Amino acid sequence: MHILVFGRTGQVARALQDLMAAKPDGALASTLTFLSREEVDLTDPQACSDAIIARAPDAVINAAAYTGVDAAETDTDQAHKVNAEAPSAMARACASQDIPFVTISTDYVFDGSGTAPWSPDDSPQPLGVYGYSKLAGEKAVRAAGGRFAILRTSWVFSAYGQNFVKTMLRLAETRDSLTIVGDQIGGPTAAADIAAACLRLAQCLAADPDRAGLYHFSGTPDVSWADFAREIFRQAGVSCMVTPISSADYPTVAKRPLNSRMECELTAQTFQIERPDWTISLAHVLKQLEQA
Ligand SMILES: NC(=O)C1=CN([C@@H]2O[C@H](COP(=O)(O)OP(=O)(O)OC[C@H]3O[C@@H](n4cnc5c(N)ncnc54)[C@H](O)[C@@H]3O)[C@@H](O)[C@H]2O)C=CC1
Known about the structure:
By secondary structure, the protein is an alpha/beta fold. It contains 9 helices and 12 strands.
C-alpha cells in the first residue's frame, strides 16, 4: 500500500519515518512518501489535491498543520488555509479516488469545561483561532465523505521539533526549580504512537469504508503539565523542583482548555488501538534524545 504523507519535518511525520526505518521491508505493509512544504504548500489547497491526483496513492495521511496556537490568534487567514482549506481539498480529492484519508485534529476544539473525558459525540466549542481552524477542517473533511478518519489527539511529544519534553529538559539545564501549570489536565501522547495509529487507520479504512469517522486518541494516564514535568525529570534523572501554578498565573495569548481528557473507547473498539501508556513512550523518547 502506497501512502502519501503531507508533512516531512513535523513530529508525527518524523515518527512515521522512524516507523518505516525500524521495520524490515514489507513488515509495515506500506510504503510511505513524504511531501515537504517546499513540494506542496498547504496555503495552496489546489496544490494539495493536485498532488494526490498526480501521485495516485492508495491512501493519504495529513501530518502537516499550522500548530502555532498563540501565533494563530493574529495569523487567522494562514491558520484557516492550512488547517481547514487544505484538509478539505485533500479529503475531496481522496473521496473522488475512493482512497482512505487520515487527518489529525486536537483537544483544542473543546472549551475545557468540566472534568469528564470528552467523547467524539460532545459538542466542540474552541477557545481560540487554532481550535476554530482545526474544527473547520474537521467539518470540511466530514462533508467530503468517503473513507476518512479524523484522529483527535493531545499534548504531542517526541524527540523532534518543539515540544514540552524538550522545553523542560532545556530549562532544567539552567534552573533547579520551575513553576508549571497544574490545573490543565490531559493525556500526553507520543508522536510515535500517533504515527502507528494513523497507519492502522489508513490500512483499516482501505479494507472497510464503514469505519470512517471521528476518533479520539491520547496517552494514559491523564495528568497536569506539572505532573508531566515531574515524570520527565524523574525518568531523565534530572533534579529540578516543580511547583504547580494556575493557568491564571501563566497568561498566554490564546486561552488553553483546562480539561483535555479524552474518551478513547470508540477508537479501541473500532480499531483495537488502546490508549498508550505515555510514561513508557516517554522512556523511548528520552533514550532517542540521549542517542542524538
Ligand atoms: N503538537 C501538539 O501538541 C498537538 C498537535 N496536534 C495535531 O497533530 C498534528 C501533528 O502535529 P505535530 O507533528 O506536533 O506538528 P509540527 O508542528 O511538529 O509539524 C507541523 C508540520 O506542518 C508543516 N507545515 C506547516 N505549515 C505548512 C504549510 N503551509 N505547508 C506545508 N506544510 C506546512 C510543518 O513544516 C511541519 O512539518 C497536527 O495536525 C496538529 O494540529 C494535536 C494536538 C496537540
